[in-house]
Amino acid sequence: MTQAAMTGAVRKTPAASRLTRQRARAAWLFLAPSLLVLILVAAWPLLRTFAYGFTDANLADPGAAAFIGFENYRFLLTDPLWWRSVWNTVFFTVVAVSLEMVIGTIIALALNAAVPWRGGLRAAVLIPWVIPTVVAAQMWGWMYHDIHGVLNEILVGLGLIEAKLAWTADPDLAIWAVIFTDVWKTTPFVALLVLAGLQMVPRDILEAAKMDGVSGFKLFFGVILPLIRSAVLVAALFRILDSLRIFDVIYVLTGNNERTMSMSVYARQQLVDFQDVGFGSAATSLLFGIVALVSVVYLMLGRLELMRED
Amino acid sequence: MARIGLSQVTKRFGGTEAVSGLDLDIADGEFVVVVGPSGCGKSTLLRLVAGLEDVSSGDVRIDGQVVNDLPPPERGIAMVFQSYALYPHMTVRKNMAFGLSQAKLRREEIDRRVRASATRLRIEDLLDRKPKSLSGGQRQRVAIGRAIVREPKLFLFDEPLSNLDAALRVEMRMEIAKLRRDLNATVLYVTHDQTEAMTLADRIVILNQGRVEQVGEPLELYRRPRNIFVAGFIGTPAINLLPCTLGSGAEGTVIVLPGDRTMPLPETLRACFGAGEVPSRITLGWRPEAVNLRGGTGGRKDAITLGVEVETVEHLGAETFVHARLDQRTIVTATAGANFQAQPGQRVAFELPLNRCHVFDGEGATLHHPSSGEEG
Ligand SMILES: Nc1ncnc2c1ncn2[C@@H]1O[C@H](COP(=O)(O)OP(=O)(O)OP(=O)(O)O)[C@@H](O)[C@H]1O
Ligand SMILES: [Mg+2]
After folding, report:
1. How confident is the model at residue A31 (pLDDT cuts 50, 70, 90)?
2. What is B4-233's CATH number, 1.10.3260.10, 3.30.830.10, 3.40.50.300, 3.90.1150.10?
3. For ligand 1, is residue B16 a contact (CB within 6 Å)?
4. Does some domain include residue A59?
5. What is the mean pLDDT of residues B240-260?
6. Which residues contact A9 (CB under 8 A, 6 or more apart)?
């Protein structure tokens, strides 16, 4: 407590409200620097992006932009490539996040069980997560390589495939190569969050279940999952938001390939390759809107679910 | 109902032995309470019986059958946890029925049992509530209800009342006693609370560092403790223990009390050693209610009278505890009447009657306790 707050409390001045106001002022004071930084690095660029979305700005000369209203958005919503990238992103998100949640939870359950070398295993599982995404993607790019890649080498060697496959170039395979890499990379994150949830489960409740003769699937779905629900929901939310913005894995592995292009890759192509700042900004703004909408809906559903619980 | 037999049961966690070579037999329908200092292995003992831990060596028997390798649900045991351990996402009804549905009981049978035990515990109105919205006492009832519906052969309780406030604890204590009479079940019950132990138990087990110090009926432990540990553990306020040394003086054997007070060894004490040699160190013990308060000095011949300085006086209403200092290290407590008055610092005399004295040898084993007629 601050000196001022203390004397306020001791003197019992007419108001707890005065004390409250003092505290609120102090809180704002402490928050101010970070708010300022946030405004500078987040809010300002965001607003600029929104603004550019309504212009025909060009990367060569952004100053010479003219206001064109909703023209960019009209074109965007009629561009099949945009819809293709939306579909790719949604497909990627649903498949990758589902896999990550399931595998991550299984890994967390395994790590939470009393296995020998648990500490070491936990650290080892985290390795893919700590490798920078671009590095990981490039690494997998080499492994996927159709001629020199180790993956083809192994699969052909084992006789699982007849001829070497172009993992990242084949239109049907590329998205799966991307999904696999993302799952490899981010499952540890999910596992860690779920593990944190599992460690909060009271031992007594698990033992009560044991005395009740509950085990296996019934134990997991009937007792454990409801108890770690919030950890799972948070992990899923993080993963969904990340996946909707997915860029680096896809761009490094497959470039501007239409079959794997995500919304972010689309926006980058417009902005950088085609120098169309206005249009790219419109695409980015829409992406932002979608991500924001998804998180709001998700949080609201989670809230409703929690209220139903009570 | 079930008979429980533990023989040479040992449980090791890494290097530490939580339970060491423990023998205990519990008769059909008996209520056995386990007490002991924190970390002495009470919970571990319970968990070994429940099957939540495996024994390192020794045998656990239920009705004569060794159950070392039997998983918990097959042992026919129900356990009530200190933390209640209710499933937070299930209603009270579901909490109670969960284990039964797992045991593949018929729907109507589950319903019947849940309703019956809810009625018995007066929680019928709570059946559709979640644990979160229940008070501590209500949660405890639900936890007990969850144990009852399984109609187990044996109930295990691990400090079930320690999270409740004093009034509720008394109420639940009486309820458990009644429940136990109605169900006629075998119970193994762990507690920190001496009153619980003394009032509920047919027999009390005193555990210390994984070993049994003594097993016996509550009053027997109180009156005839086998050693200094048991004497010190049972009874509140605790027994007064005076470490003394024995030596030989001009007029035969002398005893040196705390505070370096030397006196000839009274004949009554001498008799404790029988024909054997007189030990060099002994400890004398008096229960607070055995200590008499004296206005003056100069006491009776069959008592040791100590001059002490009052430290604190605790008025409990019906009686008064007087804690007084004998010397730097020794505080002696006496029970006085409700109206006793004294100021801290005041000097008073405590009279310790020899016929109510417990005598322990240098190792802490009991040499003599007062005959129960005199104690009572
Ligand atoms: N799972 C475990 N791993 C390692 N040591 C353990 C484990 N469980 C108990 N112990 C140790 O065994 C000893 C007995 O523990 P236990 O829980 O049985 O004590 P307790 O008598 O129930 O204590 P309290 O009165 O505090 O509940 C303690 O020293 C404890 O540290
Ligand atoms: Mg315990």
Report:
1. very high
2. 3.40.50.300
3. yes
4. no
5. 88
6. A1, A19
CATH number of domain containing A205:
1.10.3720.10
C-alpha atoms less than 13 angstroms from C-alpha of A285 in its C-beta half-sphere: 23
Average pLDDT for A90-108: 96
* pLDDT score of B68 more than 80: yes
Measured CA to CA, the distance from residue A260 to residue A89 in angstroms comes to 8
| Cα angle, residue A136 at apex, residues A135 and A138 outer, rounded to 5° | 65
Residue A231 CA, ligand 1 centroid: distance in Å = 30
Q: Could you tell me if A174 and A297 lie in one domain?
A: yes
Q: How far apart are CA B343 and CA B307, in angstroms?
A: 15
Q: Which residues of A26-52 are buried (b: 16+ CB within 10 A; e: fewer)?
A: eeeeeeeeeeeeeeeeeeeeeeebeeb
Counting the structural domains of chain A, the total is 2
CATH fold group of domain B240-375: OB fold (Dihydrolipoamide Acetyltransferase, E2P) (2.40.50)
Q: Which residue, judged by its Cα, is nearest atom 29 of ligand 1? A: B39
Query: What is the span of the domain harbouring residue A42?
Result: 3-52
Confidence tier at B267 by pLDDT (50, 70, 90): confident
Chain A residues touching B146 at Cβ < 8 A:
208
The domain limits of chain B are 4-233, 240-375
